[in-house]
Amino acid sequence: MSQGLSIANNLLANQVQLNLDYNQKQLSNVTNQLSSGLRINSAADDPSGNAIAANLQTQVDGFNQGSQNVQTANNAAQVALGALTSETDILQRIRSLAVEAASDINSSSDRANLQAEVSQLLLEVNRISQNTNFNGASLLDGSHAGFQAQTQAFFSITANAALASNGGISPSNGANYGFLVATVATGANFSTTPDFTGNNVQGGTGVTASGFAAAGGTVDGTIELQVINTGSSIAVQETFVASASGSIVTSSTLFGANQVASEFDNVSVTLGGALSTADVGTTSFIKISQNVAAQSNPTQPAFNFQSGANEGDIIQVGIQATNTQTLRISNINLALSAATSSASLGAEDAIGQIDNALQTLLTQQAQLGAVVVRLNIDQDNDNTAATNLQAAESNIRDLNVGQATTEFTKLQILVQVGTSVLAQSNANAQSVLALFR
User: How far apart are the C-alpha atoms of 75 and 60, rounded to whole Å?
Assistant: First the structure.
């Protein structure tokens, strides 16, 4: 049914106005998108898409910050590694001095001069341990040691002399009786952690010195076994030097061939099978390292590095103290000796003690080096995750500029045409006036 002329309502103009308003609104929205480069500028543009994109962007920001945290942790680890390298160089120098002092060509005053340099180097180790820090956080003083695993007591035959008669007994059950030290066994308290109170060090029946007891624990030290001529027999004399206290004790008990010397530090030494005057002066050394109990260090927690975007994404790194006390070298004395021992016993013990300290430092360096490798991998993972999540967020939020430009052009034309048609429709209503002429 056709509609006649109406002056109360311009229905044609109303329809054109409706379409024009819609197109102008769409044009305004597309213009806003093109100017911002985003498809979603507010939650009203796409409620669910906006929520998803916001969550993705949160993850991206978290991974980017995690990557920065990892880089900072990496920098701190590099500082610690540099300091550990310096301490290693110092200990290698001290070891060289100890090797020099172990030669009997040196006089007591020569050893005292060598010890003067050692004392200064030990002070430098303490200074590095105390002062190495990153952004105010100490690295090597033990304040961030965290849990440290137990270190078992162990011994090492650092020097074993062959007997002139080759022992007279064939090797059996792992024992070579052709050497001064045929075999070594440990006692029940060998792995007992020393407490350094009272009579702590194990000493046998021939030991009467203060600080030794029948059931004492094992401490750092060196056992010297030397073949001597008593005037009436050829025997082996056992001497012990305690690294921490610097005390040197010689057992009053002398041992013969194939006997067991078990006077010191929970170590039983089976001696070679035959001794002769040709063996007099022959010396063997056994280095003993004490047990170090596991430490939880609740008041000295390890470093926690937030390496990821989410709660609990942390890397924990504990760095133990590397001062002379924890390395157990604070009382090294190259000039240490006693009338009943060789003049170089203190230097010999120092060599073994420094070797143990060097191993501790090298182990710490290896652990930190492994942490650096892990941090680098973690940083790469953070960067990869951030890149992929940013791409996902971009697919949701970012504007397809080509498509939007096409839509913008179309809407511009529709608005221009709609404006023109609206003018035409308003003019058509005026044709009613012609009926009154």
Answer: 23
Residue type, 74: N
3-state secondary structure of 175: strand
The band of 198, judged by pLDDT with boundaries at 50, 70 and 90, is very low
- Report the alpha-carbon distance of residue 40 to residue 29 in Å, rounded: 10
Q: Phi and psi at residue 391, in whole multiples of 5°?
A: -65, -40
Backbone angles phi, psi at 213, to 5 degrees: -145, 165
For residue 391, tell me if it sits in a domain: yes
**In what helix (H) or strand (E) does residue 314 lie, and over which residues does it extend?**
strand 314-317
**264 within some domain:** yes
**Whole-angstrom Cα distance, residue 206 to residue 238?**
10
Is residue 343 in a domain? yes
Nearest residue to 208 via CA among 254, 266, 263: 263
Rounded Cα gap, residues 223 and 125, in angstroms: 27
CA distance 347 to 121: 16
Same domain, 242 and 176: yes
**Listed residue (308, 337, 418) closest to 64, CA to CA:** 308
State the Cα–Cα distance between residues 54 and 150, nearest whole angstrom.
Answer: 48
331 three-class SS: coil
| Structural domain boundaries enclosing 165 | 150-293
pTM: 0.78
- Nearest to 272, CA basis, from 157, 175, 206: 175
Residue 211: pLDDT above 70? no
E runs forming strands in 219-313: 221-229, 234-242, 248-255, 260-261, 267-271, 283-289, 303-306
**The tokens of 194 are what?**
């020393």
154 and 269 in a single domain? The answer is yes
**pLDDT more than 90, % of the chain:** 40
Provide the domain count of the chain.
2
Distances (CA, A) of 34 to 31, 120, 398: 5, 71, 10
Among the candidates 270, 293, 316, a domain finishes at 293
